[in-house]
């Protein structure tokens, strides 16, 4: 019976297959993640590939809360906002922290600030510098607009820069959050959010769960080595809990995600040596990681190594 109760608390099913999951708590802070389900995308004339599921993290104390990242589409941001109101009722959402400059991690913040007008959207100088590029040229016209025709741009001048030490607090200065600029992840100038009180790291897209990894922005061995060093830097924070952004529900929040992310990059590099076409590369990855999801990310990444995207 107690086991059953625990299960019910741990997995709260919401309409539309989205699962929310309890991560951890101590006497002051609680952590929940909201899993946005994988969605079909329109790519190269077809609608047969899935974008990766994405986890958005909520950390809340007695009166206040912090959200890490926001979904791509405004409608999904609005659903997340409703879930926050239900999960942390009556609490003030004080910050929305953006881990890196990819639209699937920030674009719907206006739907959240509409429901929580006091929330500040914050991130580092590096992330702020790269955000506008998501709305320009082929990245907007072919990638975001192509994949998600209903996507709308957010007003980026609302986003506020954190001081260079990266710290912010809730409940006055009781609980610290620290943006750690690790550098290369699946994109340039990535960060993770460290919560010392919980030995918790929210890994953004520096750390992956069981989803195909986006390596299209790391075409060189040098960049991939930098990504691996970023993972080592996270390990030096000695977290006990690690939440990757792209993960499957119920796979857990352990430090194993660090090694697995590095391992994936290394095995990908071995596959690169023998693959002669993007189809080869995609096939090898599917065979090696049959349980990972995010077939669009795999297709796009494999094609990027053979100049075959869009
Ligand atoms: C964008 O946000 C800024 C800062 O809040 C505001 O001054 C500006 O009017 C907004 N621009 C648009 C087009 O809404
Ligand atoms: Zn992402």
TrEMBL record:
* Pfam families (alphabetical): Lactamase_B
Q: Which domain of life is it from?
A: Eukaryota
Q: Which SMART domains match?
A: Lactamase_B
Q: Where is the signal peptide?
A: 1-20
Keyword terms of this UniProt record: Signal
The Metallo-beta-lactamase domain covers 53-246
SUPFAM superfamilies listed in its UniProt record: Metallo-hydrolase/oxidoreductase
What name does this protein carry? Metallo-hydrolase/oxidoreductase
Natural source organism: Polyplosphaeria fusca
């Amino acid at each position: 019976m107690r086991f059953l109760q625990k299960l019910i608390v741990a997995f709260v099913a919401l309409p539309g297959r989205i699962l929310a999951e309890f991560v951890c708590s101590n006497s002051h802070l609680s952590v929940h993640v909201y899993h946005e389900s994988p969605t079909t995308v329109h790519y190269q004339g077809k609608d047969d590939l899935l974008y990766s599921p994405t986890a958005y993290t909520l950390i809340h104390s007695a009166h206040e809360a912090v959200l890490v990242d926001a979904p791509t589409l405004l409608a999904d941001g609005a659903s997340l906002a409703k879930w926050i109101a239900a999960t942390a009722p009556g609490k003030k959402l004080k910050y929305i922290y953006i881990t890196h400059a990819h639209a699937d991690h920030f674009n719907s913040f206006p739907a959240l600030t509409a429901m929580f007008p006091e929330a500040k959207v914050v991130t580092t100088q590096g992330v702020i510098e790269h955000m506008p590029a998501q709305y320009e040229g082929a990245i907007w016209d072919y990638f975001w607009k192509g994949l998600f025709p209903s996507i709308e741009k957010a007003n980026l001048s609302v986003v506020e820069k954190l001081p260079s030490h990266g710290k912010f607090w809730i409940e006055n200065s009781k609980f610290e959050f620290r943006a750690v600029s690790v550098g290369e992840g699946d994109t340039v100038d990535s960060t993770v959010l460290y919560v010392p009180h919980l030995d918790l790291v929210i890994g953004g897209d520096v750390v992956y769960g069981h989803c195909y990894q986006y390596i299209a922005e790391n075409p060189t061995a040098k960049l991939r080595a930098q990504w691996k060093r970023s993972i080592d830097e996270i390990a030096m924070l000695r977290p006990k809990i690690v939440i990757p952004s792209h993960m499957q529900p119920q796979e857990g929040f352990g430090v194993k995600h660090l090694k697995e992310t590095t391992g994936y990059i290394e095995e990908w590099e071995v596959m690169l040596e023998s693959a002669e076409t993007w189809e080869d590369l995609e096939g090898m990855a599917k065979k090696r990681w049959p349980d990972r999801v995010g077939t669009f990310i795999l297709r796009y990444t494999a094609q990027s190594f053979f100049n075959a995207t869009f």
